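S.,

As promised, the zinc ion run. Input:
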Amino acid sequence: MPATDSPSPPVTSSKPPPEATEVECECCGLTEECTPEYIERIRQRYLRKWICGLCGEAVKYEIVKSKRLISTEEAMARHVSFCRPPDPTVHLIATVRLILRRSVESLSAVKSMAGNDEGIEAEEMHST
Ligand SMILES: [Zn+2]
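Predicted complex:
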């Protein structure tokens, strides 16, 4: 009678959670703790620069509100010039206001984007 009793080895996860690194927003200087993976994703999206979530929203807003198609680079340049505040709180409030106004103005765009957190895709830019 063959011995088929082989105890399954304990499943050891060989992937420890990636360490969070502190990273600074190129626009407003806000620092956030993010995983290297996330930082890399943002850098790829924003021309090797890392920008915080709020600035990311603002850059997307620059693209959406623009009457013509602008590149991410141009949108970022616009946003950066808009956000050279003496006081970061001013920027924060301004950005939040922009986002709020945007969601009122383009409710339908937001609706079609529901569930899509990836942002900045092409269909968003074709909406006007
Ligand atoms: Zn920022």
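Residues 25, 27-28, 30, 51-52, 54-55 surround zinc ion (CB under 6 Å). The longest helix spans residues 88-105.

- D.
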